[in-house]
Every structure is written in structure tokens, then in C-alpha cells.
Amino acid sequence: MKTLEIVSEHGCLGGVQRFYQHESKVVGTPMRFSVFLPTKALKGEPCPAVFYLAGLTCTEETFPAKAGAQRVAAELDVILIAPDTSPRGLEIPGDRESWDFGVGAGFYVDATDAPWSANYRMYSYVSEELYRLALEELPVDSSRVGIMGHSMGGHGALVLALRNPDRFRSVSAFAPISNPMQCPWGIKAFTRYLGTDQAAWEAYDASALIRKAGREVFPGGILVDQGLDDKFLEEQLLPENLEAACLAAGQRLTLRRHAGFDHGYYFIASFIESHLRHHAAELSA
What we know:
- This protein is an alpha/beta fold.
- The chain has eleven helices and nine strands.
- Strand 6, helix 5 (152-163) and strand 7 form a beta-alpha-beta unit.
- Helix 8 (206-213) packs parallel to helix 10.
- The longest helix has 20 residues, at 265-284.
- It starts with a strand and ends with a helix.
């Protein structure tokens, strides 16, 4: 039995854009993810890889279709890997009641409260199962792996990187949920996935993790871009809390604020090149 099934494959800039499916032991359902393989990777030569974690309501198709990342990745010989944002097809009561919880909204945590704890384990899925699959099944250089994400996925990328700097050597985010313990999206998700003990929430909050570390985890720095016309900025994203945590811990942070940009993929497409070049530089250092 094959570990990975190719759902579709599309020629792209001298490489291929693929969509895979596999049976996940971690979440207990079939999971899909996308992969862009540049020319060098198609020849079987090891390449650096960057994981991309998408935001609320998105799928594994959102990033490759909307971000325009493949052109830069083809130039830099970087593999791009983008998983889905939650398990699907479970029909757990309440998993489709709102767009910011349940299906499409796994928040990259390992749920501890029933009924979510059996399947909503996106933290372990990305950091262990998908990470291992990528290294085993794709021509990924295991010493050169980075991670980035957008919104909920920006939160996930920061958390996974801060907790696993041995696996993810570079990190960046677009409009991340920087302090989920202090915003409505995070409080709603964490209460239902993790319970009411807020001490357990700290393991999935980038600002809290940086404060707890009290030191520089990424000497190459963390890159974050934030649109100033983002309607979620003040209530949900709280980049100023991440900025304060990094300052207190001595963690270098490049937080770029951009007038005229909102929360969507036009914003991401505008700055994806600098993010990929940031990762390529860090992964080749």
C-alpha cells in the first residue's frame, strides 16, 4: 500500500504542483496536502523546504492557488508544502456551527477535551507525521526546513517553530494571531479544544512561549508582515503583544506594518517573495 497518493499533478514553472492524500494515523482520517517541487527536486536532488500553514476556512489548495509563491520557489529551488487546516469528514456535532471553529479551523493544537481530542491533533500532525512524511517521501534536505503561515496559520507557524527549533530553522508569518490567549478567536478555540485551564493554553501561544523562553530562539530573526487595513488587526491579531514579548526576551523580530493592505491573499502575494528569500537565506546560512 502506498504511503502517499497523488490526487493531481500540474506542470508549473519547470517543476510540478502536486496534491497528495494519505491516511493519517495521527488524526484518524484521510488528509490532503499540496507540494510544489522545483526542477532540482524533480531530479531527486535534496532541496530546502518551507511548510506553509493556512488560515481559517482555508484548505491545502488555497496557498498554491492564490499566493503566487511558485515563481520565487522555482528560482530558489525551494520545496513548498501546505497541509489542510483540519481533519474533515468526521461530522462531530458542532464542527460546522461556525467558520472559526471545527472544520477548517484546527488551530494547530492537539485537542485534549472530548470530542475533539480523538482527531483534532493538528500540532502533532504537522510537526511529526507530515514532517516525517516529507523527509521520507520527498527530496527534502532535513537540515534545511522552515515554516511560515497566515492568520491562524501564522499562529501555528510561530508556535511550531518556537517549540521545535531543531526541526524548523526559519520562521515567518503574515498577519498571525500573535497572542491567541488574549483574543476572541483564540479564547473560543482554546476553551473548546483544550479546556478552561489557561496554563495549558500557553503551549500554543507564541507571545507566551517567547516570554517563557526569555532568550533568543531564532538568532536569524522572526519575520512578520501586517496590513494596517486588516479588519482583524486590533481585536484578533495583537502584533504589538508579540513585539513586546520579543523585546523582553531579546528575540530579534522584524515586524513590518503596511498601509493599504488587508487580511487577504493580495497582501500575501505582495510580500511572499521577501518571505521566501528570508527562508532561503536562513536555510543556507
